[in-house]
Fold these 3 entries.
Entry 1:
Amino acid sequence: MNRASYTMRLLAAAIAIALGCGCGVKGAPIPPETTRPMQILDLEAIPEHRGIQLSWTRPQQYFGGKRMRDLGGFVVMRAEGQEQYAPVVEIPVTDQERFQVVNRFSYTDHTVSGGHTYRYEVYSHTTDGYRSLPSNEVVVHYVRSSAAPHPKTPASPATERPPSIKPAPPPPSTP
């Protein structure tokens, strides 16, 4: 067998092996928008003496309907008044391989000031970066009391003023 024939056979064998192996994915491609986490719809805000506590439920599915197993984390967004949203904190999720996962998450924003109105949204994302739509918006007018009550003394109505919480208006419906 001459050298040219040997080279051609070797090249043909390499091509056949490469085509036979492929990438391992068998099936139709998945549109990227179906691989993002479902939108969080139950974001809640509770004003406390030292900040505003946010809580929400873990998304269980992708937007496309399949069960999600690669939730990577959350980004809490905040805006003061009518300003633009800015990220406050990123919260990683590290329980993907555990038998029992966390189903409810919370974060307390300690950087708020009394007498200000804040808006919050939360995004979730997968470990490979697919990001959800923003959660429902919550609006909080934060009122901080002037003095913290003594731990062994019940709070008196004169020193503690209940903060007000206003749910955000629902988003406009789309056809």
Note: The chain has a mean pLDDT of 80.
Entry 2:
Amino acid sequence: MKTLNTLILDDEPVWVDNLSQLISELPVEVNIIKSSDPKQCASILESVEIDLILLDLMMPDINGLQIINEVHCLYPNITLVVVSGMDNLATAVECMRAGASDFLVKGSETELLQQRLQTILEKTNLEINYRSLVDRYFEPNAEFDANYASLISRSPKMQQLIGYAKTIEHSHAPILIQGETGTGKMTLARCLGGEHAIERLHCHSDSQQWLQQLLGYSRGYQGFGQPQLGLLHKLQDGYLVLSQVELLDSYAQSVLFELLNHHHYSPLGTDAQLPIRTRIICTTLVDLQPFVDAGKFRADLYYKLSVHRMRVPPLRERTEDLELLVPHLLQQLSAEAALAELPNNLYELLRSYPFPGNISELSALLTEAWYQGEEQLSLQVLTQRCKTQPNSNSAIISHKVVFPNPLPTLTETNELLIKEALNRCNGSQKDAAALLGLSPAALCRRIAKL
């Protein structure tokens, strides 16, 4: 494993030495750079390739949050971890939005703090190794880059996603794309399709109507006077995107599984066996695994769809893309909007808002600000929206929670909820705590009791 260059930045020299000692006792190769002067941060980063920064928030002259913002923008691959004396959820969330990956409390027990530090160091090393593999095996291929020009991004997560998408372009297996509303799932599907014909079919609970659109039907079927060709016929050698596949009922799921398993279909009302020459892409707003566990989604269909599985990250996980997305969206709006002078604190303002509607909501916000601003972006509109945090339920998908039978106990439910939060946050206890409405310390205590 790589020796991690770790910068400890805190205005209390004694704490810097103590933290350095705690880290040196861990079974991880670390080269520690210590500094009690936040003004030295910029010069250190210019002279040493830093992998991890452990920093305090309350420091003289330069606030720790300002350092997080600047480092995250200039050095997006550096892992930033706050080690603060403040055990405050709002502060932790603010740091997360600025670019920190974890939040530790100075007053924590030594053993617990060392465990958290070891996890952070090991995760940082894994991320470095992963980026190395991506750089080695997923190098951009100029021949295919034009297909992905509509995915406006420079974030590492999106670049990894694009790299993976390029490797599966010529596979015939189905693709499953998960992502919140407005993240660009259909845009990614179009990139995968390249120059091939592509259409979207929305999934819904009316399986009969959905199957008629998918398979088509013969003359006289259920009283229809004329036959209708289904999308599987119209899109031969093309791509079909089945949107929100989680909404399919059990019968439609069984039909879809048979189609993918046997590679042929029969239009409704006929016995004809026609080959499927259409590549299937399924999109979902949610993680399907809980649906499978609860028996609401066929396990065999889920495994069939998961041969190639991708998750499009929400905008709040790739705020470095705002500097690219805003000019692009303004250019789409009008030539005048593209040339408009942007408010000085625009990107800081946008980064403070979580955008539950993601890029679609960002586009709508810029459109509203432009038309209300009289040939410039209305700072009042932007401030009003970004300073008003969305309702906590606004980003929740409008489907019923599925409980297993028998009903779990409260203790079992808490355990499942914590595990699901950690899964959604890729193991980050700080992010999971924010998602659950707990402080990181409170979540640690609950995990210890599991």
Note: The chain has four domains: 4-135, 150-311, 317-387, 410-449.
Entry 3:
Amino acid sequence: MGFRPSSYWRLIWQRSLLISLLAVSPVALSSEEPGQAEDEDVSAADTTQQQEQGLLPINELRTFADVFDRIKQAYVEEVDDKTLLENAIQGMLTELDPHSAYLKPEAYQDLQINTTGEFGGLGIEVGMEDGFVKVITPIDDTPAKKAGVEAGDLIIKLDSTPVKGLSLGEAVKLMRGKPGSDIVLTIIRAGIDKPLEITVTRAVIQVQSVRGRLLQKDYGYVRLSQFQINTGADMLKLLEKLRKENDADL
């Protein structure tokens, strides 16, 4: 085995994560190089020693780097490095178990929002209508409500970005942002000829995962929309509130 300069190993470390790219890239590869059979015993011994010492498996990482380079050179379409490496990470975690997954920064942020129930936003429930964002209802005591946004308003522009052509998810991402920052909503309102511009200052919005009400004597209704960090405590508070309204156990 020839001597490799330290820069070679740094390159392998920087570019190597997983061999799973083979599963998604239709590139013909040989698992054996000329002279490789002669080094199998040595490679196996090296791998065992590395595992015992808690080191990275250099031979496997070298294989990954070779696969990476060949895909870059021979794949039918050009694929950027970031995409290849992210696919490799996803493949690695997918093979572990059904509950392990790799999340990109945007997906992780969405997960945090769903888990904590908090995000920087306007405080409106929205849908899509005729390609525009329709305000279903502004939530009480939120920036949108205080700024004068009304149910039924059609949002046609977010700052300088036209809403037409955006998905609902894309529009929602534009409306969310750092608490304290401003966004200008251009809206169409029934009964008003010209579009209105409303400036809304984003704030921390608390998403309610538990809602409920007393239907009639001794009967209550509770709706759990998603699990968040405080869902258990919120559920107990709501049940206690309904018991007090009922003046008895439900």
Note: The two ends are 77 Å apart (CA to CA).
